[in-house]
């Protein structure tokens, strides 16, 4: 039985062929594809401008970036308030027991080297207390708390020994009286001077030499007045000790930056 082809099917038959293109299928309607309109671009919101208050807060020491400085500051505040309001005779006794004089350095060196660094000579309003609050947090942010403690202790311990050992030798040969073995010596000034010297090595050249010139000039003027030559020499030695740590503090700062980028 032959299949009949309708007129519509005949229109779908390719010329020169006997078979329709779509045999047995309904006619296909072609619908032009419509291109979906692209979504308009929304500009990214602009970053909020930094507020002056937020920037100022970043300059203050915090427990996360300066734990050594803040912990040490808390101890110094307590001991300074105690020295100000406690019985003067008791305070004087504690000063004597904490003194890094020759007699104590011979009998209990580790104890007095630590105890002497728990007091501020002159109290919270002294110039070295102000330098402590300016120098140590800045140094700690650059090289870390443990390394800042190392720099501070180097200045405190080495400058103390460098000034007290000659006193002991002078007493032994008879150039100084025995009372010099009990000279009152305590405070944080040697450690602060060493920390300032170390920090200077991390500053730009113009700031570095300005700091060293001004601070060194003050120390030389104090030495020229000859009011306390041992302490004045100790401050100069502490500054020199801090300058001597430049190769290490610069390497520590570079290592700290690399670690910060790695954990970025």
Descriptive account of the structure:
- The protein has 264 residues and is mainly alpha-helical.
- It has twelve helices and no strands.
- Helix 3 packs antiparallel against helix 7 and helix 7 packs across helix 8.
- The longest helix is centred in the middle third of the chain and has 28 residues.
- It starts with 6 loop residues before the first helix and ends with a helix.
- The N terminus is likely disordered.
Features:
disordered N terminus; globular; single chain; mainly alpha; 264 residues
The biggest sheet amounts to: none
Shape descriptor reads globular
Low-confidence stretches: 1-26, 28-36, 52-58
Could you report the average pLDDT, rounded to the nearest whole number? 83
Radius of gyration: 39 Å
**DSSP strand tally:** 0
Helix and strand succession? HHHHHHHHHHHH
Strand proportion, as a percent range, falls in under 5%
What proportion of the residues is helical, as a percent range?
Answer: 55-70%
């Amino acid at each position: 039985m032959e299949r009949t082809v309708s007129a519509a099917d005949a229109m779908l038959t390719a010329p020169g062929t006997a078979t329709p293109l779509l045999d047995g299928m309904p006619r296909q309607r072609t619908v032009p594809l419509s291109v979906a309109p692209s979504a308009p671009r929304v500009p990214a919101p602009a970053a909020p401008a930094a507020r002056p208050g937020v920037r100022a807060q970043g300059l203050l020491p915090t427990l996360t970036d300066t734990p050594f400085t803040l912990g040490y500051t808390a101890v110094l505040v307590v001991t300074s308030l105690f020295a100000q309001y406690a019985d003067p005779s008791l305070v004087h006794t504690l000063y004597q027991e904490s003194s890094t004089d020759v007699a104590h350095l011979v009998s209990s060196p580790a104890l007095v080297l630590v105890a002497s660094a728990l007091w501020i000579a002159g109290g919270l309003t002294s110039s070295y207390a102000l330098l402590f609050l300016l120098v140590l947090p800045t140094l700690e942010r650059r090289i870390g708390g443990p390394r800042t403690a190392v720099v501070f202790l180097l200045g405190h311990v080495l400058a103390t020994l460098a000034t007290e050992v000659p006193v002991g030798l002078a007493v032994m040969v008879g150039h100084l009286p025995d009372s010099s073995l009990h000279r009152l010596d305590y405070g944080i000034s040697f450690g602060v001077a060493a920390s300032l010297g170390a920090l200077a090595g991390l500053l730009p050249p113009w700031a570095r030499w300005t700091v060293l010139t001004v601070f060194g000039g003050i120390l030389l003027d104090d030495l020229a007045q000859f009011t306390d030559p041992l302490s004045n020499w100790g401050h100069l030695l502490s500054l020199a000790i801090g300058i001597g740590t430049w190769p290490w503090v610069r390497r520590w700062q570079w290592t700290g930056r690399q670690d910060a980028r790695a954990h970025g």
